[in-house]
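Hi F.,

I've been meaning to write this up properly since the lab meeting, where we talked about keeping a consistent format for the predictions we share between groups. The idea is simple: the sequence comes first, exactly as it goes in, then the structure tokens exactly as they come out, then a line or two of notes. No screenshots and no reformatting. I'm using this chain as the first example so we have something concrete to point to.
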Amino acid sequence: MENNANSGCKRCLLYEMAGKDDVIAQVEKTRKLLSEDERATDEEYKKRLATCKDCDKLIDATCLKCGCYVEIRALSKGARCPAKKW
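Output, unedited:
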């Protein structure tokens, strides 16, 4: 995890910046709001987050292309990466 006072946390996810348990609970709560047909599989979700972590557009857990929190966006089966990486 790279951290710089001037530029924030580059390539960090929410759970790395905040309390892991709090973020996992919030992501899981959001996931439960999606129907099973709308949810990405666990494997797909993890793969998406790994791709986001390698992207230079990820800063402070936020995608600079669209402004979303990637951990939330990646939950939906129909969501797409604005940089077309997944």
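Notes:
The beta strands are 2-4, 8-10, 58-59, 62-63.
Confidence is low (pLDDT under 50) at residues 1-6.

If this format works for you, I'll send the rest the same way.

G.
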